[in-house]
């Protein structure tokens, strides 16, 4: 499947889209109308503290149910939105929805639940992310401390000085910064000291085989140690099996996210999960019923 890893998704996108430019245009036109037609929605995937089993928050993941094309995955439509400039409107829409949602959690559930929102490189290069985040926090009432922004390694390489200034101003708003898909980007790690990063999200392509593949296990171990030394929180994505969670807990990884604890789900279903506390049980080595 295309979403299996960032690397595969990229390859899939190229093959798929380059071979059919017409469909790409059709999808792009559909996407242009998606917001006003209310075809976009946000799903939430729980993030778990591995030591306690508690839900710490959720990642917001965009969904598009097109009346013409059916369900289109973000690995397809996010690149289209980036190419057409629609990412600015769509990115603001998802950010606002996620902040409103997290503000509701703050009022109804134990304090401290965070929401993580993915930011596209385009939103940095041709946008004003600081103004964007300020607007979303002001409109929702969410404290900056409860918002986490997921960015990718590649964003820290290009136009590094400009990006550094933006990230520092974002940090001044209280928000936390996470590196998504960590380990799949550039090999220079010096940026980890240079940029005000809070969290490393270990890419799911390393997590998938940690129980069977010594190389992947060593990579995950090393990233966790790196995080500990640099005082960064570590979270593993794509945690599907109990063995994954056990390995990660033993390695000292702080948090986990994956089908073992819950798939991305509508907000109402996530609220049920919070109320039941299922994920707590799952982290204690009994599988969650929700996935
Ligand atoms: P990501 O940010 O790395 O998100 C993680 C992806 O892994 C999600 O795919 C999630 O559904 C999937 N996943 C989570 N747990 C597991 C698991 O245990 N096993 C497997 N096999 N997969 C798992 P999804 O929702 O299809 O999103 C794909 C990518 O699209 C995201 O990767 C992100 O880069 C992008 N994306 C999604 N929503 C947004 C958004 O609102 N804005 C931007 N800019 N990008 C977004
Ligand atoms: Mg990814
Ligand atoms: Mg992400
Ligand atoms: Mg990721």
TrEMBL record:
Signal sequence residues: none
Superkingdom of this protein's organism: Bacteria
Residue ranges annotated for the EAL domain, each copy included: 24-278
Protein name: Diguanylate cyclase (GGDEF)-like protein/PAS domain S-box-containing protein
């Amino acid at each position: 499947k295309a979403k299996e890893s960032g690397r595969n998704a990229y390859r899939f996108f190229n093959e798929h889209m380059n071979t059919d430019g017409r469909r790409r245009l059709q999808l792009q036109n559909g996407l242009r109308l998606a917001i006003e037609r209310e075809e976009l929605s946000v799903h939430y995937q729980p993030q778990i503290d591995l030591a306690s089993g508690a839900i710490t928050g959720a990642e917001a993941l965009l969904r598009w149910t097109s009346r013409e094309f059916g369900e289109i995955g973000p690995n397809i439509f996010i690149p289209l939105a980036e190419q057409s400039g629609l990412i600015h409107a769509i990115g603001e829409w998802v950010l606002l929805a996620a902040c409103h949602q997290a503000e509701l959690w703050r009022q109804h559930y134990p304090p401290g639940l965070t929401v993580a929102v993915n930011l596209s490189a385009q939103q940095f290069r041709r946008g004003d992310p600081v103004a964007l985040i300020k607007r979303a926090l002001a409109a929702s009432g969410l404290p900056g401390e409860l918002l986490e922004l997921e960015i990718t390694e590649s964003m820290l390489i290009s136009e590094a000085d400009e990006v550094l200034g933006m990230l520092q101003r974002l940090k001044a708003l209280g928000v936390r910064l996470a590196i998504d898909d960590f380990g799949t980007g550039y090999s220079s790690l010096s940026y980890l000291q240079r940029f005000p990063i809070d969290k490393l999200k270990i890419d799911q392509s390393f997590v998938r085989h940690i129980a069977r593949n010594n190389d992947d296990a060593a990579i995950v171990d090393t990233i966790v140690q790196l995080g500990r030394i640099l005082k960064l929180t570590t979270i593993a994505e794509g945690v599907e099996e109990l063995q994954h969670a056990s390995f990660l807990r033993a390695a000292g990884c702080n948090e986990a996210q994956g089908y073992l604890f819950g798939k991305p789900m509508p907000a109402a279903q996530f609220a049920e999960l919070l109320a039941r506390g299922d994920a707590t049980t799952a982290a204690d080595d009994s599988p969650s019923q929700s996935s």
